[in-house]
């Protein structure tokens, strides 16, 4: 139930909640007809009700669902678009703009995302902390602000470029800047919840030969969890081995800790974001997220209970192999596992991981020795676990199989002919 501190009794103005849900690459829940293939981003967006009647007066909850990078247009456009940074920047501006244009002081902001959609959500959160919420007129400057911040993070301290970039940004970062005054609260963002953050373009080098400038620019200026974010939840994929999909973990800072900030980062499986027909493991992660945010957001529990369609006992489904089809083109790496307590990242292991038939031996040993903390289930998670019943046989069909075939053909075309990749922001070519 919602704590008393979370319930509004202010009748002077009906505040609202602005909730942005950013999907992963090639994911568009609006166009997906097979509900087995829905991502956790779409499922979470549909789980959030349009108002929270637990508060007096009820609080309106406005959800903006954003399709993933590369999901627009035809199939060819999907793969071309997914190899550029321009669409990534467009998504950040679109999500930020939705909040900026609809925000009224006192409103609550929530950001959720999967994969590169998680990158979008976290970048939007970072910009709200850095420049607040721009008004309609200042939104004209967002593209240049975005690029200036990325370049500032990567510029050489020994040159004058950092000073020039800071001067360019000063009008929007000075303490009395209008955007910062609009979002002048101890926690301007109520919650950021992400499923596996990809912190780069996340593509094989063979497909990004013409994108050197974009690869130099796009990324996180830093991984510190801003002190303006009240809560952050991050599901991490223990099984991910693609180097270009390495995860950008949050890191806590003294400012947030001094204000009672909450950060949870839990290790799960490679199936974190959904999109597979057999989605047991993704369902467990979705329920984990719902259990952690249900005191802040009103959720449709009837819809949430309709999501699982188990093919195996709770936690026992074998994770899908992330290195099949097009993904076999990516360089391999072993992701750093949480083998000890880390107060900076505050990583734990989800209890469902212990149900897996195979675990990396070093992780199993660390858990057995008590060096790696295992997170206890919350009441909502316990409820789903108790009622978890196998309903059907595994279909074991990867939702991206057709696209992987096309992606391989496109790679062949890329290596045997000259192709110009067009970036949406001309500024990247400067």
TrEMBL record:
Protein name: T6SS Phospholipase effector Tle1-like catalytic domain-containing protein
T6SS Phospholipase effector Tle1-like catalytic domain segment(s): 16-291
Domain of life assignment: Eukaryota
Signal peptide bounds: none
Alphabetized InterPro entries for the sequence: AB_hydrolase_fold (IPR029058), Tle1-like_cat (IPR018712)
SUPFAM superfamilies, A to Z: alpha/beta-Hydrolases (SSF53474)
Pfam (any one): T6SS_Tle1-like_cat
